[in-house]
Amino acid sequence: MKNAIAIGTLSACLALPVGAQAQEYTLRIQSLFAEASLPGQNLLQFYDDIEVMSGGRIKVEPFFSSAVVKSPETFDAVINGILDGDTTQPSYQVGKDTAFQFVGDPMGGYDTPWQMYAWLYEAGGLEMARELYAEYGMFLVGWWVHGPESLSSSKPLASVEDLKGWKFRSPPGMETDIFANLGASPVVMDFTEIFTAMESGVIDGADASNLSVNKSLGIYDVVDHATYPGFHSMPADHFAMRLEQWESFPDDIKRIIEVAWEKLSFRDSLSGEVAIAMTANELREAGKTLHAWSLEDRKAFREGAVKAWDTYADSDRAKAIVASQKDFMTQIGLIGVGQ
């Protein structure tokens, strides 16, 4: 009997640490995407992955379509504890530091999502970016890159020369400088105004999103030309959390979230690439013209973009991140002699 009591007591003691470690974390994470969208569905898979891999210790309360606060306000909502995770666009935070532009969309820099991921994971980019986020009490888990964007137009855009005099919708910020320097006439307007402005002829075209999203917006119901493959812009949305909360997680929870996020980001880029390619095929079959720029034209655009980087990067951290990306782009042959 004494042995049975001793064994039972020992079993109870051994069970205590397991129970103590089985803390649950409920994370409130906001996305600007709709739940039914391709990125929205990929996010749901990420949430399911971290719940399963953590044995139910992590649960997510998702908010889609910026349901809690406006998209640009998500970052500060996480800082202030209103939300726990932000999966929006880093460049929304350029008012804090222009360095956020270059961890959000180094415009004209990379041709593919995989080159952007390579700078982040293979060239020291993640460490530099995390130092930037830490200044604001935030932790950068990682990026997800939905694919290169395309320019849509009522007239041909077959080369960099065709940008001269082209009046198009542009988001605010560095992009307006890049295109103005190449002779275009950017008009800053809200995303929601694009279709009406193009339909009425107020603008000749737009920088909206990638080919697949542009089609869903009805843009190719009113214009017949687009650049493809895209090259001028390839935004990397982020997954960022409050630094204090991140540091409170045990190591296994941190590892689960980081590994699951890498899976999400790569799968999202793959699925986005497939969707864009399928859309390109559909547009060609519908009689639309897709313009693939030559290496020489891409080089000219990239040179113009890099000049704008140097002007726009007005903080020490922004300048360091730009220098790092330029060095990496030189190493992989995107800029430099013969490019």
Structure commentary:
This protein has 339 residues and is α/β, with parallel strands linked by helices. The protein has helices at 2-21, 38-53, 74-79, 99-102, 113-122, 125-134, 174-181, 194-199, 211-216, 243-248, 251-285, 295-312, 316-331, and strands spanning 25-30, 58-63, 85-86, 138-145, 151-153, 167-170, 185-188, 205-207, 225-227, 236-242, 289-291. Helix content is 47%, strand content 14%. The longest helix has 35 residues, at 251-285. The chain is globular and about 60 Å long. It starts with a helix and ends in an 8-residue tail after the last helix.
β-sheet strand percentage: 5-15%
The tally of beta strands, per DSSP, is 11
* Helix content range: 40-55%
Gap between N and C termini: 83 Å
Shape: globular
Rg is: 23 Å
The ordered string of helix (H) and strand (E) elements is: HEHEHEHHHEEEHEHEHEEHHEHH
Largest beta-sheet characterization = 6 strands, mixed
Spans of at least 5 consecutive residues with low confidence:
1-20
Strand order of the largest sheet: 7-6-8-5-9-11
Mean pLDDT: 91
Number of helices: 13
Structural class: alpha/beta
